[in-house]
Amino acid sequence: MRDLVSRALDTASQQGAAYADARVVERRAESITVRNQNVEGLTADESLGFGVRVIVDGYWGFAGSYRMTPEEADRVAAKAVAIARASARAGGPRADIGPPEVHVDAYRTPFRIDPFAASPDDKIALLLRVNGAMMKVKSIVMAESNVYYQREKKTFGSSEGSFIEQDLVETGCSIEATAVDEGEVQQRSYPNSVGRHQGTEGWEFVERWDLAGNAPRVAEEAAALLTAKPCPAGVTTVILDGSQLALQVHESCGHAVELDRVLGTEAAYAGTSFLTTEKLGNFRYGSDAVNLTADATIPGGLGTFGYDDEGVPAQSTPLVSSGLFVGYLTSRETAASLGQRSNGAMRADGFNRIPLIRMTNVSLEPGEWTLADLIAATDDGIYMETNRSWSIDQRRLNFQFGTELAREIKNGKLGDLVKNATYAGMTPQFWGSCDAVCNRDHWVVWGTPNCGKGQPEQVAHTGHGTSPARFRNIQVGLMK
Amino acid sequence: MPRLQEAEYRMLPGETQLKDTADRVLAMSRAEQTEVLLFSSHSALTRFANSYIHQNVDDTSVDVSVRAVIGRKIGVAGTNVLSDESLRAVVERAATLAAHQRENEDFQSLPAPQPVRRVDAWVQRTAAFGPDDRARVVAAVCDAARNAKVTAAGAFRTSASEVAVANSLGVFAYQRETNADINTTMMSADSSGYAARLSMDVNDIDGPTLAAEAIDKCLRSANPVSLEPGVYDVILEDYAASDILDYLAYLGFSAQPYQEKRSFMSGRLGEKIVGENVTIWDDGLSPETIPMPFDFEGVPKRRVELITNGVANGVVYDSYYGGKEDKPSTGHALPAGATYGPLPSNLFLKAGDAATDDMLASIERGIWVSRFWYTRPVHPLKVIVTGMTRDGTFLIEKGKITAPIKNLRFTQSYIDALNQVEMISRQTRLMPGMIGVSRVPSLKVKSWNFSGATEF
What we know:
The structure holds two protein chains of two kinds. By secondary structure, chain A is of the alpha+beta class. Chain A has ten helices and 25 strands. In chain A, α3 runs parallel beside α5 (211-225). The model of chain A has no long low-confidence stretch (mean pLDDT 96). Chain B has helices spanning 4-9, 14-28, 84-100, 124-127, 131-147, 207-220, 238-252, 255-259, 319-324, 356-361, 414-418; strands at residues 33-49, 52-70, 73-79, 151-167, 172-187, 192-199, 231-236, 280-282, 304-308, 311-312, 346-349, 365-369, 372-379, 384-389, 393-397, 400-404, 408-413, 421-432, 437-453. In chain B, a hairpin with a 4-residue loop joins β4 and β5 (172-187). The interface between A and B is large, with 82 and 94 residues. β3 (59-65) of chain A pairs parallel with β2 (52-70) of chain B, so a sheet runs across the interface.
């Protein structure tokens, strides 16, 4: 791999690139999906290729290929240079990526059990057992369970002298039960919805989440939701569980602090951000209880790695400190535009995509409360758990989320089950209404393996550490 | 000297080489039945923002996927390395996975060969379009923006791709296609406008015309006023109306949710479920779409009447879900290993006879929606969807647009909406769908529910 990277960098420089980097990415992934009692998805995929990114006369070009030959390295590097020259046709400012980043290093995801080594029979048997338990519950028409694991070996080199090898392992799992009755469909998922829960760990991740132990509860809750009372409409106190809060953080903080969005380069697709640069350091994003951090070094987090895809070391960056907006997720180029150095948030989805600013582990730091105390200290409100729907405007202000399950809170106690719960708000007002965050005992780094951004669209794997938190005066139950 | 990209599309393997690769894979397999699916593509995308090119990428790729069947046990494995050693390994891995599988009693067989009609989806000049060509179009869009004192963002993609499917029962199907797909969002301090084009033929894309549409919308939507959320009659431009087709397809037009009673079509075939003026079908062979004559199992695509004059008529099948009902596949399989079931990929919503001006003139007080954004299902069975308006939202009073308005959130059942369609435009537009492409007119819909508002 080193030879191919060096060849591509040499050719790019000879062709006129002032800066070049090359990445070889070898990815292997397996997925098992059991639907009802059939193993409907049993797949193993691998891919190998490389991409070359260049700056020529201040303009960017990128090309990638699956052909791993020296001649192809030459062709692709020359193509990237030609594309950069074409980029100059529309004018605009010349790229400035700031001071050099030179690192020679290697990083491996620490894990206990190689997920590829575990027996396929055992994995299938686990998922069939889980599905069987869910299908036993009346009204369940569909049960689905899934495990997924991948290994990605990246070799990065730059014309500045970096050479970095990384060996990254991820494992994820999910179960889901769907209940149907007259005109009503209800779903429960575990450990998380919207794909699955995932981390940079080995098979121990699946063992820890105990799918079999939770399957009956998940199915029973889905069935019970069919006859639950509908979510009332009004303004009330809301307590969100950690997994729902993880998506709230993802959508209303994580994307909002991506500096490429702020500077307009995602405007036509993902959108921009209300957190414009003049707000940095002086805008009240939330209450004093709100502390948000981007940290790519959290053990097991899905957004954890050694170096980003510009070769910048993983690091921890405060985003919101005691409610004050203090930081962005950055790349080398965007950071330089603010006179900063990159905090290492550039990642690409495979060899044939350029890196974009992506969330690492963007987390709400834990507070002091236990969940039991928090509920006991809430006279009237609604507890919501596990995301069911999510939507937010392109500047990350107006949002509406729905959850799979909710419960009334009356006089400090959890009460009746509530279905089709939704809540809505505006981001700064919502976080400004946060008056309590649960403690580290409740804190989980939730994995989101399906964050879409960019054109061509790329899917990133991000992490979000959260514990349950309470929000006052929230609009709930908007659904007709 | 030929342009770089011209040389590159010629590097696509082509039918003969893909057939040869497929034959090699099939010969390597010891499984009872084997299917091989091959994709190859050359795709390039020029992205612009703040009125200049900031990303410009090019990708040559190939993918091979093998489905091995032993009894009723199935394994799927894939690679992008085409050496004999790699292909042998992927065949072996698929067979090994199948061996670890459980018998799937619902699986009957891989499809037998059927005649596949040849349809042309290849335009040479699109395949040969290079980075300088794309940059020239983008520069024209950016120049128009500068002249209008707005900023341009967007992306222009051109691609040439091939797909081939073969199986051990004798199926072999091959198709190649080209795509040119451009969109731009023009922005001022407090407004934006959007325009997009999709075609097999890059000659259908004209930068200045595209820019003019988006600039006009951007300038007209400047200084927006706030409007209280509530129930309003709406005109959904085709860009917005396409979202309705996307969600109907995703949530209900597939045999999988239909059989699992999760679809609004479940148990309702033959019933009137939407207004009589609504007819929806899928037709992969139509010249009005980007045609694709077969699915990812190599089964020829049939035209499927999904909703006819408001009546639920049918859903799409692949061989697996068709087998569960003893019905033939309609040619809508996704690649093996996908667990979403079959999906329509060339959707049509039947055009009406209305001129857009007449649709506007018919509204006493309502809202013009250019485009939706970040739509998500809130209640899948009722197809209740929430999302935002974007890039040009206007108040209509007494048949005229009287003011641009700040963007609104809606929470609306798309089934209810299709029961309240009062007018349908003559014109339709081809647009990318969730899977494949859709051809959609603009709609006038009564009583659309806007549930919130944002600050811009």
